[in-house]
Write a structure and sequence with these properties.
Blueprint lengths: L1 E6 L3 E5 L19 H11 L7 E5 L3 E5 L3 E7 L5 E2 L2 E2 L4 E5 L4 E4 L7 E6 L24 H5 L1 E3 L25 E7 L8 H8 L3 E7 L3 E5 L13 E2 L4 E3 L7 E3 L6 E2 L3 E5 L1 H7 L7 E6 L2 H12 L2
Parallel strand pairs: 12-20
Antiparallel strand pairs: 1-4, 1-11, 2-3, 3-10, 4-9, 5-8, 5-10, 6-7, 6-9, 12-19, 13-14, 13-20, 14-17, 15-18, 16-17, 16-19
């Protein structure tokens, strides 16, 4: 059975944990931009940690379920309604055959993750169902076929669960991106490094799954071009105009701009929920802080 898509909005894609060992082939990492919301959506349903969800950007999104199941919605508040009845975000829900889910742009956040019991089905390519429109290597089930398959599930015996409030992010709160020195950090001047962490940058409309372009006082780089090299998730490039670009999951595999920093992966998830016009800051942290933050996340 399948989910019939009636309205897909600006961008709705199948996403899982992505392709982690394929950059040498020119394939981007892909995968859910907000791993926090994506992981909770699967956890609420008892799904495999790498089960495919639908990443819905901004909305509106309307779909009809053609079989009973359980769903979970985590991420941006999109004023979710099931058969015209408002339902809570960050919670699981029982869904009957023929039910219609409607999502609309809300007050905060940019991306919502729709999970179904057992995960959505799709074409597996290099161990992942994640879709990357610009690569044109997979059929886009939502944008092109307008249906996404899933296995029916008798939801009546399934317990409704929700995410504890302390783990639900506030996407309107000030965001400081914790980062580590990038490949060319030591080649930036002291003044440039000081300027990088002592001002706020505004998110521009040129923000997508490939990367977030920011605007502020330009960060100077005086050494010309560099040899192209591999790019890590969260790399902060400084192009010739001095305006930082934080590279995300659909980033190119190689790049020749200097990189002053690399943003913590968990903070990349937070950044992916911020809208154009919101402001962010950068702060360098020590490597042990990263280990501690991952341990805290694991113990949740």
């Amino acid at each position: 059975m399948s989910l019939r898509i009636l309205k897909a909005g600006p961008q709705s894609l199948l996403q899982d944990k992505g392709r982690r060992t394929c950059q040498h082939l020119g394939l981007c990492q892909s995968g859910a931009l907000d791993t926090h919301a994506y992981s909770w959506a699967n956890y609420l349903l008892g799904n495999d940690a790498a089960a495919a969800c639908i990443e819905i950007t901004l909305g509106p999104f309307i779909a009809e379920f053609q079989a009973t199941t359980m769903i979970a919605l985590c991420g941006a508040d999109m004023l979710a309604h099931l058969n015209d009845k408002e339902i809570a975000m960050w919670q699981s829900h029982r869904v009957e055959k023929g039910a219609t889910l409607t999502l609309r742009p809300g007050k905060s956040g940019l991306r919502t993750y729709l999970a179904v019991k057992g995960g959505f089905e799709g074409t597996v390519f290099y161990h992942s169902r994640s879709e990357v429109p610009r690569e044109k290597l997979l059929p886009l089930h939502i944008q092109e076929k307008r249906t996404v398959s899933y296995t029916p599930f008798d939801a009546h015996s399934q317990r409704i669960t929700g995410v504890p409030e302390r783990y639900i992010p506030d996407y309107l709160s000030p965001l400081t991106l914790r980062c580590y020195p990038g490949y060319q950090y030591s080649e930036f001047s002291d003044a440039a490094r000081h300027q990088f962490v002592n001002q706020s940058f505004r998110i521009t409309p040129r923000a997508d799954r490939m990367g977030y372009r920011l605007q502020g006082d330009p960060i100077p780089w005086e050494k010309g071009g560099i040899v192209s090299e591999g790019i890590a998730l969260g790399s902060v490039q400084i192009p010739p105009d001095g305006q930082p670009i934080v590279l995300l999951n659909d980033r190119q595999t190689l790049g020749g701009y200097p990189k002053i920093a690399c943003v913590n992966e968990m903070d990349c998830s937070q950044l992916a929920q911020r809208r154009p016009g919101q402001e962010v800051n950068f702060a360098f942290i020590e490597i042990p802080d990263k280990k501690q933050s991952w341990m805290l996340a694991k113990n949740r």
